[in-house]
Amino acid sequence: MTASQLPYIPGISAEFVRILFGPHAEQLHEPWKRLFDGPRFAFQEGLGPQERTALSYERLHFVNDALRDPVALASDIEALTAMHEWAGVVDPGMATIASIHWNLHLGSLLDHDPGGRDLHPYRWMERVGTFLCTELDHGNDAASLETTATFDRGTGGFVLDTPTPGACKWMPNTSGTGGAKNAVVAARLVVDGTDHGVFLFLTPLTDSEGRHYAGVEVRPLPQTASAPVDHCATSFHGVRLPFEAMLQGEHGRLSRDGEFVSTLGNRRKRFLASVRRVHAGKLCMSAYSLGVTRHALAVAMRHSHRRLTSGMTTGRKVSLIEHRSHHAPLLSAVATTYAATLLHREVVRRWTNGAEAEREETERLAAVAKAWITWQARTVMTECRERCGAQGLLLSNGIAYQLAANEGTITAEGDNRVIWVKAAGEMLMGGFTPAPPSEAPAAGRRLDDSGHLQELLGDIERIWHGRARGRLRGGRRGDPLARWNGTVTPALQLVEAHVHRLAAQALLDAVGKASDPQARVVLARLHRLFALRQVKAHSGDLLAAGHLTAEHIHHLPDAEEALMETLVPYALPLTDGFAVLEGVMDGHPVLGAAAPAAEKVPA
Fold first, then answer.
1. How far apart are CA 344 and CA 252, in angstroms?
2. Is 400 left (phi over 0), alpha (psi -120 to 50) or beta?
């Protein structure tokens, strides 16, 4: 019996859905699925960037109207990240401005002292919120930004200024498109010439007609290759704000007579406390990438079962999925996507339920996971695009458009590479201790044993930790940059090994949670496939360190191939476990939907 002829396995896909989305999927995910899986969010052919941006704002208002309590969404991280998992599938631009509005803008307002602030305009979306932090000259070093909010003792308010061209706020969605907008602006609080550090200031940008207020200068930026959003360069020239505009909290408070107090001793810590919503934004970016990746993979998998090609003998046709060259990369992508989804679930769980004492470690994990997940999303979606051939290039097929938009998540809420460099430094300076090595001899390890493979992932982590620590200790004294340059390469390998182990562990933990015996077997094989690929990539180091034998190295390719063979019959049920938006799937031409009629061009 060939792969295309294998019978559907009843019930197993439902078990995969339960494993991936958890016991509360009906409350957490189904409302978003019902909202986004309708004609209002269907892909519209032939729109230009400005038209797509305007449509995204229309849809944003529709989403807001559908919510029972739009303001409360900003405080519910589980619901907020769930929204991102489905919104990006139908409209990446809308997902972007929704993330800015609910997480960065409203979330910042709610995380600081409320101060009697009226949030009713947000409940009815009479005003859209945006977030202005990074500047043209200050991206990953945003703590050094130059925009100032100077306390005016005469009026009791603040004067917002952009002192240099390089201090313009870079890329926020501040155009007149979308109607009335408020911004939360990161600026240096200056009182009587003293710089107290960066705080956030609520700043009206446009009126209901989209006209910018006096002193707000906005310049549209060239079109990006990512999601169509109204990115702009924004400057302020003597914009007056009331005293209530400053978002205050334990990290910094200013009295009406200009007295400043803070529980934090330095300005960098105050900045990080002010923009802490960016950390939650990392969870949102991961969620977006996971949602569009699962959808793209479901499209590619269904296409691979429907599309016929040569069966290697004259006149014989088989489905694409029957070819090893086609199903091997897709099954590897499935393993990665399951591991990434389950890792994200664990990070969100720690974020919402973890102890305050673990907050720093959880924030680092959220950052490391965001970088890995968004990078993996790029890799998986690229594979899906290629496996669908020219059909994968059509925006209406739900892959290429979302793939391009995913580039934004790699940079948003902290550039991935910089995030990992920061995490690497923290892990080497006492923020991480590798698990001790297994006492089991290398010869006793089996490549078909999930526990042994997980130990090998720990060995990889330990190898790179030791190398990085050795480089750091032996680095050039008196030259911190040269010392770090000699350390950073193995340190980044440590971060990658760390997140791979955690993702594999999340997938292995899911095996024990499956109630269906057949699902447990399939998930265990998926874990071994994911782990084997990492082990194979580091097999030389594992052999040299005595964690693997030469016989293991010889058998690694065969072990991977054998797993592929056993997983082919489950390829479709595994991606059915993604519970994708079926109405959206029905609209993809690659899966049989009629292509939209071309518009008539006037003679």
1. 32
2. alpha
Q: Count of CB atoms within 10 A of residue 397's CB?
A: 25
Confidence at residue 601, expressed as pLDDT on a 0 to 100 scale: 30
Nearest to 29 by CA among 15, 17, 41, 11: 17
**Residue 501: CB partners within 8 Å, gap ≥ 6?**
454, 457, 458, 460, 461
Which DSSP letter does residue 142 get?
G
Beta bridge partners of 138: 135
Q: What is the pLDDT of residues 543-582, one digit of tens each?
A: 999 999 999 999 999 999 999 999 999 999 999 999 999 9
Residue 146 near residue 166 (C-beta atoms within 8 A): yes
> Which strand (E) or helix (H) includes residue 451?
helix 450-473
Two structure tokens written together for 465: 């930790």
CA distance 252 to 200: 11
DSSP state of 143: G
Q: Are 246 and 149 in contact (CB under 8 A)?
A: yes
User: What tokens were used for 21?
Assistant: 């989305």
Write b or e for each residue in 472-492: b if 16 or more Cβ atoms lie within 10 A of its Cβ, otherwise e: beeeeeeeeeebbebbbebbb
Whether the CB-CB separation of 360 and 429 falls below 8 Å is answered with no
Q: How far is the C-alpha of 479 from the C-alpha of 160, rounded, in Å?
A: 39
